[in-house]
């Protein structure tokens, strides 16, 4: 067994690859063996480790010294630690657009040292002892669909220059890992996709137009209400939330008139308030950034006053939009864009679309914004 360093302070260190962090763990040992807090959410997030939404715990048992598992980049974050034995680990940045693409970091892991590996960083290790148990927590369930997005690089790539403690010629390696291509032929892992619902709306069409002109549609999915009804719980069963980094909700009820009558008010309530509850719950579960449009400050058709009646109570649309905003705030990573209802009729959908895309690109603080991108209230 490796000599374990007991009673270390919990500590996090950067590695030179963005998001890849080494964690020194406090292991308490005596004549019986040892104990450690392998994952401690409050303490670790306070030190800068992302708040991993663990949905699966995997264990790799390695029977003999020299077992070497290939460099695989997977579409989820993971927290890796060793329960028994020790490993030499090598990590390679394989993320599309990363400033450190191709950069390598290596270190040894034992029960007193773990590592946080972000999505798209290739992970590999070599067992240094017989009977090594290697465990990792992940924030997405394995699926055949997600497996299609994996990317790989060869363990022996001379461009990476990894100095394996046990020569690869003496190691135990799978046939699949032996035939993987070199870095020059790697297809980088693309960022998580963005889903836009309500693509039939003016703002939805404007976002699609900008995306088509400036980048490409390969990282976006555009669905209209007939394909994705935010009010129908069954809708969410048809998509894998772990594939998305952001959802932009441009859905409207089609009844945004204040004088629409009881039936219209009911439709607005269902689409904007109840639909937002389902959508916020879904985004919170998968850690998705949620962007929603609000008309909380809607005006009367014949007045410049806010949507309040003479007694100071919100009119039906204003009340519905207030409830919608409350629902959206149940998703911690949210952006609410408050619109003047006349903006879209004045052909300002394009500027609203630009504001939304800039927020996501620049990773602005979560909270409520005006249509021009002015922060009205940060979410803490």
Task: Give me the secondary-structure topology.
Blueprint: E1 11-14, E2 21-24, E3 27-30, E4 33-36, H1 41-46, E5 56-62, E6 68-73, E7 78-84, E8 87-93, E9 104-109, E10 113-117, E11 121-127, E12 132-138, H2 144-147, E13 151-153, H3 175-178, E14 193-197, H4 202-214, E15 220-223, E16 244-249, H5 261-286, E17 289-294, H6 316-328, E18 334-338, H7 342-345, H8 349-362, E19 367-370, E20 375-378
Parallel strand pairs: 14-15, 14-16, 16-17, 17-18, 18-19
Antiparallel strand pairs: 1-2, 2-10, 3-4, 5-12, 6-11, 6-13, 7-10, 7-12, 8-9, 8-11, 19-20
Helix pairs in contact: 4-8, 5-6
Helix content: 10-25%
What are the secondary-structure elements, in order, as H or E?
EEEEHEEEEEEEEHEHEHEEHEHEHHEE
In CATH, the architecture of the largest domain is 3-Layer(aba) Sandwich
How far the N terminus sits from the C terminus, by CA atoms, comes to: 45 Å
Q: CATH superfamily name of the largest domain?
A: NAD(P)-binding Rossmann-like Domain
Query: Tell me, what's the shape?
Result: elongated
Mean of all residue-level pLDDT scores: 86
Strand content: 25-35%
Please identify the oligomeric state.
Answer: single chain
Main structural class: alpha+beta
Count of helical stretches: 8
CA-atom Rg in angstroms:
25 Å
**Topology-level CATH name of the largest domain:** Rossmann fold
Biggest sheet features: 7 strands, mixed
CATH class of the largest domain: Alpha Beta
Low-confidence stretches: 253-263, 297-314
Strand order of the largest sheet: 15-14-16-17-18-19-20
Number of domains: 2
Q: How many extended strands?
A: 20
């Amino acid at each position: 067994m490796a000599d374990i360093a007991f009673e270390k302070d919990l500590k996090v260190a950067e590695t030179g690859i963005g998001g890849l962090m080494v964690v020194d763990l406090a292991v308490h040992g005596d004549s019986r063996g040892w104990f450690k807090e392998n994952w401690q959410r409050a303490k670790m997030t306070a030190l800068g480790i992302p708040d991993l939404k663990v949905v699966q715990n995997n264990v790799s048992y390695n029977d003999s010294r020299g077992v070497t598992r290939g460099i695989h980049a997977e579409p989820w974050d993971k927290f890796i630690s060793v329960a028994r034995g020790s490993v030499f680990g090598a990590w390679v940045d394989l993320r599309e657009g990363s400033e450190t693409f191709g950069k390598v970091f290596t270190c040894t892991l034992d029960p007193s040292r773990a590592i946080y590996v972000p999505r798209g960083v290739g992970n590999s290790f070599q067992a240094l002892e017989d009977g090594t148990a290697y465990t990792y927590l992940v924030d997405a369930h394995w699926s055949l669909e997600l497996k299609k997005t994996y990317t790989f690089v060869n363990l022996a790539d001379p461009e990476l220059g990894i100095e394996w403690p046990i020569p690869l010629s003496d190691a135990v390696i799978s046939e699949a890992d032996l035939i993987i291509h070199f870095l020059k032929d790697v297809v980088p892992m693309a960022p998580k996709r963005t889903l836009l619902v309500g693509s039939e709306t003016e703002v939805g069409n404007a976002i699609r137009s900008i995306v088509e002109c400036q980048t490409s549609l390969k990282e976006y999915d555009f669905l209209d209400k007939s394909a994705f009804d935010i009010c129908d719980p069954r809708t969410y069963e048809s998509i894998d939330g772990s594939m998305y980094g952001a959802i932009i909700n441009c859905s409207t009820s089609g009844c945004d008139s204040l004088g629409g009558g009881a039936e219209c008010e009911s439709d607005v309530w269902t689409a904007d308030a109840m639909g937002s509850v389902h959508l916020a719950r879904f985004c919170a579960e998968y850690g998705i950034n949620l962007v929603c449009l609000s008309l909380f400050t809607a005006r009367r058709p014949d007045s410049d006053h806010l949507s309040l009646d003479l007694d100071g109570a919100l009119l039906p649309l204003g009340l519905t939009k207030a409830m919608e905003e409350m629902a959206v705030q149940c998703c911690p990573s949210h952006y609410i864009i408050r619109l003047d209802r006349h903006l879209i009729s004045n052909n300002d959908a394009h500027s609203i679309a630009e504001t939304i895309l800039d927020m996501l690109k620049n990773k602005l603080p979560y909270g409520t914004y005006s249509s021009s991108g002015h922060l009205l209230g940060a979410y803490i």
